[in-house]
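Thread: "does anyone have the structure for this chain?"

Original post by V.I.:
We have the sequence but no experimental structure in hand. Need at least a predicted one for the grant figures.
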Amino acid sequence: MSKVVKKRKMRKVKRVRDPQKLAQLRQRLSTRAVFQRIGFDWIKSDGLQFMFDGRSGEIDDILIYQNVIVIAEYTIGKPSSAHLASKSILYEKILKNSSDWIAQYSDVNTVFNAALDQSSFQPNEFQVFICYASLHGAGDEIENAFPHYCFLDGTRLRYFDALSKTIYQSARHEFFNYLKVDLKKIGSRIHKTANDSKNFSGYLLPEANSGYPKGFKVISFYADPETLLEMSYVLRKDSWRDPDGLYQRILVKSKIMRMRRYLTDAKRVFVNNIIVTLPGKTILNDPTTGKNADNTLLAAVSPVDVNIPLQANMIGLIDGQHRVFSYHEAPSDPLDKEISKQRTRQNLLVTGLIFPPNWTNTQKREFEAKLFLEINDTQARTKTVLKQSIAVLLNPFSTVAIAKEITNRMSRSGALQGLLQTNFFDPPDKIKTSSMVSYGLIPLVKTEGDDCLYAAWKNKDKELLVDRQADKEKRKVILQEYIEFCTQEINTFLIEAKLAIGAEKWKPSTKKDRQILGPTLINGFFVCMRRLVKTDNLRGKAHYTKHLVNLPLIRFSTYKSSAWKSLGDKIFETCFP
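Reply from O.Q.:
Generated one for you, tokens below.
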């Protein structure tokens, strides 16, 4: 009798992946995906050693769009001066002699060489940029020390990721803006000798009839969506731009898709007008005489030739960004076949404002924000958080504005650098700042009372900060000095608190990793500082070092949510009896 031999089931051995390598792979794939979504081609380069101008090295990734080359350097750790400096010498040599590097590197990288062969550009016709992609922000000090890098940290990458998933290839225009690419040298334009500009036929409103302040020019003209997509910019408050003066919302994908469906189903252009600002370089000529048109001399609306220089950041979209970006390029979208025709065929009615030549950037931003709020309040209720951002822009002397600016500065330097969530696209594990601003900072930086930093500030001109009748420019100088004073005092205290608690515990608390650092503790420190001011104990680094040694004696975990007042009192009583 034969025995039935049962086969043993082989146990599947679970493969354990190195978490660090997995994080590196995810970062590279997500970064490449953004580049590829906006139209770049990926060139494999990792592991290929080369020598250029006496310096050896290798490149993590190369991304190419026509004659724009981006060299990507990746790190999952916090950017350090040492790591940046080690690569910096090679990259500076490449940027200085990019055409020589392209010619030499082609011999090393066959895929790169094949891509160049298929293009219609010579090595000296390429624009080369270095992108340093990190999961963490580099901080102002490092970014200023290495200006030749374009830092694509986690927050900026998430912004471009969201933007590219909404408007796909049209997101490249804003990315080029971020890189500071010369639009006149992109693609076939580099082969042209003439200075390109965009010309439109429009109408100029007499200055007396506009109702705008003296010196304003108001014009109306039709513009094709393709031009607007390339030359427009939007001051979105959660974008990569400097947060000062930004007020508009991020694009809503669902709204964009509904509008694209309208364009393909109705096949009609949007009839309501787009509101924009135009640069002072815009030329307005009388079409009959060819001379400059002067709106101060006009008695009626008159035709004009509108000439706008072909550069980035020329057309500021105040109202109508969703209508403009609904024409975006998305080859993978079935609707794009029809919309691609409409991008150049249809024309949108544009009302353009040209500011008086003596207006500052601050005046322009304030005016734009007011206009944006007026338009949106009459058409749809603007979200409260957006109104707050606009209010901060329009009233920089308010305690809300002061507290928000201090929060932004603390996120870039000091004990809380890289730990605060100041942007919609910041990682969710960073510390939220809304309650910090409202309940912690505003009481600490207010301009009245004996328990605020204003009371401790020794500036002899500090009364200018609260004097609404004083010269505005002088007040702005004092405002910046007060913000700097507050930031330094807070950072001095928090750095000593961090040292007393220990760097290993100075991490944001998450559901997975229960640490002590969060809005409750930070607001507790602010409450303690208010008591220090009131008792004349705000005495600097040495004083805090001496007294905060008792900080670890406090059981921070027993103070939940809004218990910052009792926690602040406990810190004060324990450390400054």
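V.I.: this helps a lot. The two ends are 92 Å apart (CA to CA).
O.Q.: and The CA atoms of residues 477 and 547 lie 34 Å apart.
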